[in-house]
Amino acid sequence: MRDVIRYGLVLGLICIVAAGILAYVNEVTHSRIEAQKVIEEERALASALPDAATFKDETGAISDLLAQPQFSLIKGFYEGYSTSDQRVGAAIKFSSPGYSGDIEGIVGITNDGKISGVVILSQQETPGLGANVTTEGFRKRFLGKDVHSSIKLKKDGGDIDALTGATISSRAVARAVDAAGKLFGRLAAGR
Length: 191
Known about the structure:
The chain has 191 residues and is α+β, with helices and mostly antiparallel strands. It is built from 4 helices and 5 strands. It has a 5-stranded antiparallel sheet, sandwiched between helices. The longest helix is centred in the N-terminal third of the chain and has 47 residues, at 2-48. The chain is elongated, with a radius of gyration of 22 Å.
């Protein structure tokens, strides 16, 4: 019986020390991880809307619009400006439920309502199937699409090919791109 108590105390002490070390490592690395996320998002914005040199976060200015159910997938709205401070379009951040979790990304839309890029920031989809939403081949399927038209998979009456074996993941991205397009159109029309 004494051995059980002694082993329990030793195990408890090991757990306390391990938890302390993990808390310390988390504290030290937290700011670096957050800074890296900001850098990755800035790169994604530039990739989604390549004609923009700078971006202005307008998410707060349209928070009333983002509260509406049809825009529930939209998590951020950034206006893009050229080097001469001319508005060239918008980059819209989304989070859409996929097969294994949320798929987060950014859609770039030019002033004329054409999709200039789709960048996937994070996903937990099945490797080799749904995870292929990150591939350039899939993302290119959206390029040049007019956001004033509905953006859907062929299976849903649209013209976007779904990934083989990954309809749910493909649909999640298509739904988010369509929501971003509708938001862009609504803002262009004056809300």
